[in-house]
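Our collaborator T.R. sent over the components below with a one-line note: 'Predict the complex.' Nothing else. No constraints on interfaces, no templates requested, no preferences about which chain binds where. So this is a plain run: every listed entity goes in together, and whatever single assembly comes back becomes the starting point for the next discussion.
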Amino acid sequence: MTVMHGTSERRAGARRARVLMKGNEAIAEAAIQAGCDAYFGYPITPQAELLEWMARRMPELGRTFVQAESELAAINMALGAGATGARVMVSSSSPGISLMAEGMSYMAGSEIPVVLVNVMRGGPGLGSIQPSQSDYFQAVKGHGHGDYRTPVLAPASISEAVDLVAHAFELAERYRTPVFILADGTLGQAMEPVELRFRTPERRANDWALTGADGRPPRVVKSLDLLPENLERHNLALQAKFQEIARREVRWAGQQLEDAEFAIVAYGTAARVARTAVARGRSRGIKVGLFRPITLWPFPERELARLAARLRGILVVELSAGQMVEDVRLAVEGRCPVAFHGRMGGMIPTPDEVVEVLRSFQARVGRRARRKALLPLPAESKVEPPSGNGHGAVDRAGWAPVEPVEPSEPVLAGGHRRRLREVAR
Amino acid sequence: MTVMHGTSERRAGARRARVLMKGNEAIAEAAIQAGCDAYFGYPITPQAELLEWMARRMPELGRTFVQAESELAAINMALGAGATGARVMVSSSSPGISLMAEGMSYMAGSEIPVVLVNVMRGGPGLGSIQPSQSDYFQAVKGHGHGDYRTPVLAPASISEAVDLVAHAFELAERYRTPVFILADGTLGQAMEPVELRFRTPERRANDWALTGADGRPPRVVKSLDLLPENLERHNLALQAKFQEIARREVRWAGQQLEDAEFAIVAYGTAARVARTAVARGRSRGIKVGLFRPITLWPFPERELARLAARLRGILVVELSAGQMVEDVRLAVEGRCPVAFHGRMGGMIPTPDEVVEVLRSFQARVGRRARRKALLPLPAESKVEPPSGNGHGAVDRAGWAPVEPVEPSEPVLAGGHRRRLREVAR
Amino acid sequence: MSVATPPRAPASPRVIYQQPELLSETSTRYCPGCGHGIIHRLIAEVLGELGLGPRTIAVAPVGCAVFAYDYLLLDFVEAPHGRAPAVATGIRRVRPDNFVLMYQGDGDLAAIGTAEIVHAAARGERITGIFVNNGIYGMTGGQMAPTTLLGQRTTSSPTGREASLAGYPIRITEMLAQLPGTAYAARGTIIDPSSVGKTKAMIKRACQVQLEGTGFALVEILSNCPVGWGLTAQQSMDHIRAEVIPAYPLGVIIDRGKRAVAPTSGGEG
Amino acid sequence: MSVATPPRAPASPRVIYQQPELLSETSTRYCPGCGHGIIHRLIAEVLGELGLGPRTIAVAPVGCAVFAYDYLLLDFVEAPHGRAPAVATGIRRVRPDNFVLMYQGDGDLAAIGTAEIVHAAARGERITGIFVNNGIYGMTGGQMAPTTLLGQRTTSSPTGREASLAGYPIRITEMLAQLPGTAYAARGTIIDPSSVGKTKAMIKRACQVQLEGTGFALVEILSNCPVGWGLTAQQSMDHIRAEVIPAYPLGVIIDRGKRAVAPTSGGEG
Amino acid sequence: MAIDPLATRARAPLPPWTPLVIAEDKCKGCELCVAACPKAVLALDEGVVNRLGYHPVRLTDASRCTSCAFCARVCPDVVFTIYAPLREV
Amino acid sequence: MAIDPLATRARAPLPPWTPLVIAEDKCKGCELCVAACPKAVLALDEGVVNRLGYHPVRLTDASRCTSCAFCARVCPDVVFTIYAPLREV
Amino acid sequence: MERSVIFAGFGGQGLLFAGQALARGALEDGLEVFWIPSYGPEMRGGTASCTVIVGDEPIGSPVVDRFDAAVAMNLPSLEKYGPRVASGGLLIVNASLVEETARRPDIDELHIACTELAGEAGDDKLVSVVALGALVGRLDWVTADAMEAALREIVGKKRSAALAADLAAFEVGLAVGRGERLEVAAASR
Amino acid sequence: MERSVIFAGFGGQGLLFAGQALARGALEDGLEVFWIPSYGPEMRGGTASCTVIVGDEPIGSPVVDRFDAAVAMNLPSLEKYGPRVASGGLLIVNASLVEETARRPDIDELHIACTELAGEAGDDKLVSVVALGALVGRLDWVTADAMEAALREIVGKKRSAALAADLAAFEVGLAVGRGERLEVAAASR
Ligand SMILES: Cc1ncc(C[n+]2csc(CCOP(=O)(O)OP(=O)(O)O)c2C)c(N)n1
Ligand SMILES: Cc1ncc(C[n+]2csc(CCOP(=O)(O)OP(=O)(O)O)c2C)c(N)n1
Ligand code: SF4
Ligand code: SF4
Ligand code: SF4
Ligand code: SF4
Ligand code: SF4
Ligand code: SF4
Ligand SMILES: [Mg+2]
Ligand SMILES: [Mg+2]
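Returned assembly:
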C-alpha cells in the first residue's frame, strides 16, 4: 500500500503512469476520485492549493464546493452535509483546525462521517507556515470536549496520502466517525511522482442519514441527551465502537527491523528523515530500523510493545517538542529506554542530525545496560519474512513480524468493561 | 491548603466564619478578591452563575465585565486585555471551551496570562449539562494546535477552588501563560461551606505588557515568526518554561497511603467519591489509600511513580472513559497494575460501586501476582509522618512521603535537550 | 392523555382546529405560556399545508428549542450553538431537492451565530429560517441577549442593560434584509390570535420563497420568555406589545418576489 | 539605505514630505504597488499629527498586514484571524486612557470575523478600525473574499465569482453603519494622490471620534492586490476606479457627530 | 393538516355536542387562552393538579363558546381541538 | 510628522539643490509614482537592480519637478523625501 | 457520619429553597454540609429536586446510593425516590397531592397534607417549608434554633412578612415532625 | 543515490518553474524525484527558492544538509547557499546580476550571464531556464531529451511561442553547461 519504501518493483516499471503532483492537489484529487460529494474549506497556508483544486474541480463535476466564511462554518457545513450521508471532506491547517474542535466533537458525538485534513504548520498561535507535527496531541487526544477518539491517518508520501484518502472515507463511513488525515506543510507543498491508483470506496446503505421523513419515521442526528443514564449508554456505544476500531484498524510499516537493536519511531515527514537516517546509521554500523505508525490513533501499541521487548532502545523523532513519544512510552511501558529527538517551529531535523542523536543514545543506553542490566536482548528474537499486518500497510522494504500479544495495561476494571460489553453497536 | 479532608481542626473552630456558597459563585468571588481586573464570558450551563456573579459584582467595583457575543470573542477579549498586563478570567463549560482552542494556543504562544475555568459537563457534542471529567485530555494535552502546555488545576471542593483561583492567577502571571481550572458541574452547582480565605496575589512588574509606547520602544505581543530558526528558538524558550513549571509547580494530596496496598488515583469530584470509597474499603479490610492530583499538568508523575513501586495496584477513577489513566500509566510505567473505572455522560460512580471494582481488582491482581510474580511489595516500604510536598497542597488526613526520584523515561536525547539548555528564559 | 374525539359523537363532526399531523403527541419541555410552543405549531401547520413534511430536513438550534426534534415530526440534525445556518448550508448544497428549515433563538442567531447567518444570507442560500427573538437567553437561565432592550434586567444585566457597558440592541433582520441574497425577511409576533395568524402567513411565504428558489428567507418572531422576564405568560405578551414591538417593528421588511436575484446558474451544484 | 538628506545642502531646506516618525525604516514585505504600504503611511501620519503614537495600543490582523507591527512604531498585539475587534475590546475595557487602533483586511473583517466586528460596533466600543478591502485574500494566495466582485476570478473562483455558488459581495460597512453603536463609518480609496488625501482625512476623523468617546469608528479603504488580481500596480488602481468603486461607493456613510449616542455612564468600567 | 377543507359540512354530530375538547394533561395553566377568549368562557380549574403539576383549563360555559378557535391559536401546548359550531338545523 | 507647518520658509537651501530624494533601495519599481507624476519626470531605471531585486525609480528631469509630492502620496514604500521648490529669489 | 436527604417535586414548590435552608441550618450548627440541585432546563416547568448531605466531617462523595430521608412532594417523586430511601430511613410525602404510599414497612413514612398545613400557617404555597419542618422535627439532624436562624438569614429582614410566613410554616411542620400534631400526619400503609 | 539541487533568487526569476521542469524531466527518465518550494508570503516580492532531489529510489528525507548543486540567481542566494554546496558539487551563479564568487576551490563554480544568454535565445526573462540548461548539461542527472519532453509537457502545446523560447533558452544553457560555449561561462577563480 505505501509506496514510500517501494524500490525494485518501482524501478522495474519505471515509465508507467505516474504524474508529478503537489501533495495538496493529490489529496484533493484523490478525494474527488474517491467520490467526495462535497468539500468545505477556508484558505490557509500551507493547504491553500487543496481548496483551490477543489474550487476548480468540484463545480466542473457538478459537486459541491463551498468556500466557507470561516473554519467554524466549514466544519459545520460538513456536519450538515455529512448528516445526509454525503461523502464530505474538509481541510485546513493548524490554527484553522483548532477552530473546528467543537464541530468535531459534535460529529463524533452524533456519529457523522467526515474526513478532515490537517496540513500542519508550526505553532503555537499564528506560529509559522512551515511544516510541523505539533498537532499530534490535538488530533490524537484532546481536540474537542468529551470522550471520543478520531482515527488519525498519517501519510509519509504523496502516494500514500492518495491511498489514505480513500481509506479515510471508508473508515469514516464504516464507523460513522470523523477521521483525521494528519499531513504537514512539506507533504502539502512538495511534488512527487504519484501513481494514479485512485480508489472509490463503495457506498453503504445509510439507514440513519437525513433525506426527509418520506414514508418512514423521522430521523434525528444529534449528540444531546440530558438524561445521564441515556447519555452514558450512548457513550458506551461510542466507546465500544472506538475499541473495535482500535482492534481492527491499526496500520504501521516497518523497515529493517529484523535484526535491529534500535528502532526509530516516526511518522509522516519525520519518518522520511528517519528512513534516510536508518540507511546512514546502518552504513555507520548501528543496527537500527524504522517503525512507522500509519494510524496514529489507533496507535500500533501491541506491535510496538512486542518489538520493544527485543530492542535496546527506541528513538522517537518528531517535528514537535515530543507528543507521539507519550504514546510510544505507553506502548513500550518500560520494556526498553525511549529517547526523543524533535525540532520545532518549522525546522526539520537532517538525517545526519538524527544519526548523531542515535549515536549518543546508543552510548548512553550501553552504559545504562551495564549499570542496571535492564536490557538483555531477547535470545529468541527471531526474524520472520515480510508479511502483511492484515491491512496491506506494509512497507516493501523491511518488515518486523507482528504476532498478537496480550493488551498491555490498563485493565478496564469491573463495571466499565462490563457495561462496554453490554452495549451492542 | 485543601479543606476537603480537613477534620479535627475544622470541628474545633466550628462556628468560625464560613459561608454557604455555590461553587460557581465562590470561584467568581475568589477571582474578584484575587484582584481580577476583567472578566469575559458567555452563558453556558453549568457555569452560568459564575458569569452572573461577575455581571453583578464587577461593575459595582468599577471593573470590567463583558458578556461577549461568543466564547470565541470572550477568549479573544481576554487575549487583548491580558496583553496589557491586566488580571483576566474567562469561564465556560465544555463546548464553549472547545471554541477557545485557537485563542488559548495564541495566548500560550504569545505568553499572555489568563485564567480559564472549565466547569465540565458531559460530552461529546452537546452532550448534557451534567457533571463530567471528559475534558481532561483537552485541558492537559491537545486543546489548541502547536507545542504548548497549560497548567491545569483541579479542585475537589469549593474551598479548594477558592484557593486555587488565587494560585491560578499567580501561576499565570509568574509564567506568563494561560492556566486552566478544571472543575465540573457538581462543583459548580453545589453549595458547601466556604471559609473566606481569599487571597490577592502580588502584582509583578510587567515589562512586556502593552500600555502605549510612551517614552520607551514599542512592544509587540505575538506568536508569529516566519523564520523557522526564530520560531524554534521561541518554542525552545516556551519548552524551557514548561519544564520549569513541571519541576516546580506539581501539587497533589494523599490520604491513607502509608500502609496502602492499593491506591485510588482520582481528581475533583471523582476524588470525593474515591475518598468515601477509601473509607468504606478500609472498613471492609482493603488497604487502600487515595492519591489525588491537584495539578493535572504538571502531573505528579515522580510522586506517583515512587508510590507505585510499593503498591499492588492502582485504580484510576474518573468521570470519563479513561483519560487521566494515560498519565497515570505514563508515571507508573509498569511498576504495578493500573485499573480503571469510569462513568460517563453525567453519571457519577457511587462509593459502593468503586469499592466493588476495587474488590474485583484486588482479586485479579492477587491471581496475577501469583502467576507472574510481578508485584512483590517492597520490604523497605516505610511509612513517614505527614509532611508537605513543598507547595502546601497536603490533605490534612493521610499523606504519602515523597522523595525526589529520577525522572522516568523519556530521555530527552541529544540536540533537543541541549537546545533546551541553551535557551535562557 | 385525553383523546381529541368529542364524547358521544358517532358521526364525526367537522374539525375546525386540531393538532397538526407534523407535531408529536409529546408534551414540550417549554415553560407554561412559552411562545416556542406556538411557533412550533405554526411550523407544523404550514409545512403540513404545503405538504413539505416528507421533504424537509430541519436544523435544530442550541437554545430552549434544542428539543424541537422531539416535537416536530421531521428529519432533524442538531447544530452546534449558532451554527445552524452553516449546517443548513451543508444540507442545502448536497440535497437540492429537499426543503431545508432552520430554527434559531436570538442568542443563537444574533450573538454567537452572527457570522453564519450573515453569510448564509449573503450567499442567498435557499433556506427558510425561523428566528425566535425573545430578547433573552432562555435556556441558560435568562441572560442578556444581543436583542435585549436597553434597561431590561436579566441575570447578566442585573441593573438593566446599559449601552455604555453592554451596547445596543441589534435589529439583525433589518441588517440581513440589506443583503441581496436575502429574498424575504419579515418580523411577526405571537401575542394574540391575530398576530399569530399574520405570523403564520409570513412563515408560509418564507417557505414558498425557498420553493421559488430566489434566495434566503427569514421570519423573525417576537416571542416571550415568561420565566426569564419574571412575568406571567399574559404579562409577557403585554410587554411585547408595549415595549418590544416599538423597538422591533412588525411587518415584511423585504420581499424581492419572484424577481429576486435568482441564481445565475441552475442549481446548488 | 539612502538617507533622506539632500546632497550638499548645508542649511536644511524645508521638507514638504518625509517618512513619518511612526513608520519604521524597514522595507515592508508587501508586493510592489500594494496599497497596504500607502495605508500604513497614512496611519503613521495621522497618529503623528494627533500626537497619539505614545498612547496607542494597536491590533494587527492576520492577513498581509500581519506584520504591521514591524512597520508602525506602536505597541502591538497580534490577534487571531478575524478576532481583532474582540481583542481590541479587551484592551479598550481595561485601558480606558489608551488609544485603540485596529487594522483588518476584508477576509479578516468581513468573513471569519463578521461576528466580532458586528458586535464591537453594536457595543459602540471606542475603537478606531481601518478596514482594507482589496476584494481578495492576499496573504494566502488570492482566494475569493466576501467582498470579491461578481465575475471576478480568484484562485478559489477560477471561472469568476458566481452568485449561485458563492453568494453576493457584502457591503459590510453599510451594515455596520446601521448600528447605533457606530459613530463613524466611511469608505475611501488610495488610487491617486487626491483619493489618498481624502482617505487620510477620514482616518483622522475616525481617530477623533474615538477621542470624542461617541462610539465605534471605521474607515473602509478600497485597496488593491496587484499580485492576487494578476494586474500591474497601476492597472489595479484603474480597476478600482472602473469596477470596484461602482460596487462600493466612496464617502462618509455615517458620522453621528458629537451628538452620537454617547455612553450613558462615564467610562469603560 | 390544520384545517381539512374537504371535510363535509353535511353530517352534523349527534348531541351531546361540545365545541371543543381540552387535552387536560397537556395544559400548563398559562392562561393565554383565558386572556384570548372573546367570550370569557375559559378558566383554570384550581381544584385539580394535572400530570404535569398544573391547574388545567376548563370550558366554563360550552353554550357561549363560538368555536372561534382563538384559544387554540394562542395555546402553546396544542391543548384544544375545536369543532364547528352546531348548526340550528 | 508629514508636513511641518512651522518650518521656516525663509532659509533657502544652497545649490545644488534637488526637489526630492529617492531612497533607491526601498523602491519596488511599482511605477505608481510614475503614473501619478503630473510632470512625467519619473521613470524606472532599467539598468539597475536594487537590493530588493527591482529597477528603482529615477527623477529624469529635476528642473521640471514642482515638488507637488503626488509621487510621495501614492508611493507605498515611502521612497520619497520632498523639498520645497527653489524660490526665484 | 453523613446523612442525606433528597427534596423532590414539581418546579415551583420551593424545593431548592427548602434544601438550602436545611444546608444553612447545618452550617449554623457548625456541621459540614453539601447541597446540590438537579439543574438545567428540566428545572423549568418540569420537576425539581435537590440533595443535602449533612455530616461531621467534610462531605466526601456528592452522590448518594440510598437516602437517609426523602421528601416527595408529588407522585413521580414518590415513585422515583420512595424505593431509594435506606432501610430505617424517613420518607415524607405530600399528602395534599399524593394518595399513594411507598409500601415500605422498613421505613418511617410520614404523609403530610402540606398545602392545608401551609395554608393554616398563612400561605398555602409554602408546602416545602412545612415538609422541611417535619423533617427537622423528626430527625434532629439540625437544631430547630439553627433552622430558624437560617430562615431569618436567607429570607432576610427586609421581607419580614415573607419571613413570618416561612417561620410559621416551618413551625407547623416541626410540630408534625415531632409528633405533636398527629392528626395530620399519616404513617405509611 | 540521491542528488539535490536548490534554485534560489528573486521572486519572478522563474525559479520554481525551473525546479519543476527538472522534476518532471526526472520523472520522464523514470527516476524518483521530490520538489519542494519555499512557500508563503515571503515568496511574493522577496526571495524564492525550491529544492529538487533526484534519486533511483523513493526520496527519503526532504531536507538536505548539503546540496549537490545550487543555482544562485542573486547575491543573497549566493551568500546563503554558496557555503552549503557539498564539496565537489556544482554552483551556478547568475553572472548578469552577481559579480561575487563563492571562493570555494572545492566546488565547480559556473558563472553564467543568464540575462544576456536568455536574451540571445529570444526572451531575456528566461534566466532560470538558461541556468537549468547549464545544470542539466553539466551534471547529466537527467537526459536532455527528458528535459525537452518535460518542457513541452509543462508549457503545453497551446503556448507554442512560449515553448519555443523556453526550449531555446534551455538549449543555450545546455551548451554552456556542456562546455560547448566556454566564452560565456566563467569558472570560479
Ligand atoms: C458553544 C456553546 N455556548 C453556549 C452554550 C449554552 N447555551 C445553550 S442555549 C444558549 C442560548 C439560548 O438563547 P437563545 O438562542 O436566545 O434561545 P432561547 O433559549 O432564548 O430560546 C446558550 C448560550 C452552548 N450550548 N454551546
Ligand atoms: C484561523 C485562520 N484561518 C485562516 C488563516 C489563513 N489566513 C491568513 S491571512 C488570511 C486572509 C487574508 O485576507 P485579508 O484579510 O483580506 O487580508 P489581505 O491579505 O488581503 O490583506 C487567511 C485566510 C489563518 N491564519 N488563521
Ligand atoms: S426559559 Fe423562556 S424561552 Fe425557554 S422554555 Fe421557558 S419561557 Fe420559553
Ligand atoms: S498579496 Fe496582495 S495584498 Fe498582499 S502584499 Fe501582495 S499585493 Fe498586497
Ligand atoms: S373557541 Fe373561542 S369562544 Fe370558544 S373557548 Fe376558545 S376562544 Fe373562547
Ligand atoms: S393556553 Fe393552553 S396551556 Fe395555556 S392555559 Fe390555555 S390550554 Fe392550558
Ligand atoms: S514631486 Fe510632483 S512633479 Fe516632482 S516627481 Fe513627484 S509627482 Fe512629479
Ligand atoms: S511608487 Fe514608490 S516603490 Fe513604486 S516605483 Fe515609485 S518610488 Fe518605487
Ligand atoms: Mg432567546
Ligand atoms: Mg484582502
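Summary for T.R.: The CA atoms of residues 18 and 62 of chain E lie 7 Å apart.
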